[in-house]
């Protein structure tokens, strides 16, 4: 173990054996991130029940809004991306994520603002809720009970969904997402039904079981994904808009939990630009020099750093109409990038979506990578929960 300059302990080389030692895993995970992550299915059920108690029906009183703004930062902000992809390209109303304090200048009485904050105190969500109230926009707030956000919502007489706090916010993605979806359902913008929620929760439970710490690497998809990524620069591309939301989420968790630099995005866009990374110094050029018989652990000077591609494939449900790219195009592109990686010797992991609804498919692309980011942190001896750099950044910038 070595100490970084800020006193953070860890090891540069991943300790593979540690992943198959449940006692050591628990010891390196004092905040219980594995358990929080395994609660994803329970979060869906709990948040659905809490949202049912809030009076979301009032949102529909003034009819369909002109636009919906999802205001929040970090994981809270990601809920807006989830809503946009679940609503799909035929959603009649624009869904806009807003990640800085306040609301866009055009927001007014015709619009709905959903302010989201796990702690209920991010300046971004609070600023947005206050601005929405001032401008007469309909407001919904989602966040910790008895928080500043709840006070703002009460002052505005706006529905508030109290989501119990699980530190850190990134372990609450599902708890925060479900109320956002149900608020949008009250507005007639998404068709998420009770069966979709139940099946999504069941899928998250089943994936948590496959990824549990007692399941060894060779049968545990999250541990094997983590070990494949160890020591690499991950590139995570999504084959469809839905898969791209999952790719960006993996970027969040790989950075925050495992402290890995990561490139994420949509394969469609990457194919016109970033796919060139596969030819570069960390891609084909590094692989060309690789001695296939060498022990990978000899690479301790960082010179052998290589890309590792993670392809999240949707295989989709999209209706064949002019609002969506045809599924066949997405599939051909995903096959093509796998061939490209293979030709250059760049290793590639593929996670394929499963499930009948958009929400369940998204869950199936998020669950295993969420666990993988934690196992990767643990293999490096890093506490996946505590991120001193985020705290230090907040202190230095006085936020
Ligand atoms: O959801 P809230 O509490 O507003 O936090 C929003 C974001 O704040 C940042 O400082 C980090 O902690 C993120 O992990 C978090 O998602």
Automatic annotation (TrEMBL):
A Pfam cross-reference name: bact-PGI_C
The entry's keywords: Isomerase
Listed SUPFAM superfamilies: SIS domain
Residue ranges of every copy of the SIS domain listed in the record: 56-189
Keyword Phosphoprotein belongs to the record: no
PROSITE patterns to which the protein is assigned, alphabetical: SIS
Source species, domain of life: Bacteria
An example Gene Ontology molecular-function term: isomerase activity
InterPro entries: Glu6P/Mann6P_isomerase_C, SIS_dom, SIS_dom_sf
Gene3D superfamilies per UniProt: Glucose-6-phosphate isomerase like protein, domain 1 (3.40.50.10490)
Family to which the UniProt record says this protein belongs: Belongs to the PGI/PMI family.
Protein name: Mannose-6-phosphate isomerase
Highest classification ranks of the organism: Bacteria, Bacillati, Actinomycetota, Actinomycetes, Micromonosporales
């Amino acid at each position: 173990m070595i100490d970084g300059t800020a006193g953070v302990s860890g090891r540069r080389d991943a300790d593979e054996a540690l992943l198959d030692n449940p006692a050591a895993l628990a010891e390196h995970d004092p905040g219980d991130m594995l358990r929080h992550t395994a609660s994803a299915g329970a979060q869906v059920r709990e948040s659905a029940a809490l949202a049912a108690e809030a009076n979301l029906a009032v949102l529909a009183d003034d009819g369909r809004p002109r636009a919906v703004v999802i205001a929040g930062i970090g994981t809270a902000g990601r809920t807006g991306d989830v809503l946009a992809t679940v609503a799909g390209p035929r959603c009649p109303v624009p869904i806009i994520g807003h990640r800085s304090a306040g609301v866009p200048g055009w927001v007014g009485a015709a619009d709905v603002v959903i302010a989201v904050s796990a702690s209920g105190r991010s300046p971004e969500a609070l600023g947005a809720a206050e601005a929405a109230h001032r401008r007469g926009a309909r407001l919904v707030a989602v966040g910790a009970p008895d928080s500043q956000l709840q006070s703002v919502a009460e002052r505005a007489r706006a529905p508030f969904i109290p989501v119990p706090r699980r530190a850190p916010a990134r372990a609450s993605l599902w708890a925060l997402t479900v109320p956002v979806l149900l608020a949008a359902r009250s507005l007639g913008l998404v068709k998420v039904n009770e069966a979709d929620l139940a099946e999504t929760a069941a899928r998250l439970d089943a994936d948590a079981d496959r990824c549990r710490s007692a399941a060894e690497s060779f049968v545990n998809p999250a541990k094997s994904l983590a070990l494949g990524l160890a020591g690499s620069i991950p590139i995570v591309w999504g084959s469809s808009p839905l898969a791209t939301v999952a790719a960006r989420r993996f970027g969040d968790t790989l950075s925050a939990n495992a402290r890995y630099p990561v490139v994420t995005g949509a394969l469609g866009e990457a194919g016109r630009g970033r796919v060139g990374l596969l030819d570069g110094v960390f891609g084909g050029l590094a692989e060309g020099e690789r001695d296939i018989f060498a022990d990978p652990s000899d690479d301790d000077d960082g010179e052998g750093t290589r890309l590792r591609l993670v392809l999240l494939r949707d295989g989709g449900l999209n209706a064949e109409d002019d609002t969506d790219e045809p599924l066949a195009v997405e599939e051909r592109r995903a096959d093509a990038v796998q061939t490209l990686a293979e030709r250059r010797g760049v290793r590639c992991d593929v996670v394929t979506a499963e499930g009948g609804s958009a929400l369940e498919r998204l869950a199936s692309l998020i669950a295993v990578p969420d666990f993988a980011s934690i196992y990767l942190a643990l293999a490096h001896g890093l506490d996946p929960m505590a991120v001193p750099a985020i705290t230090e950044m907040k202190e230095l910038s006085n936020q």
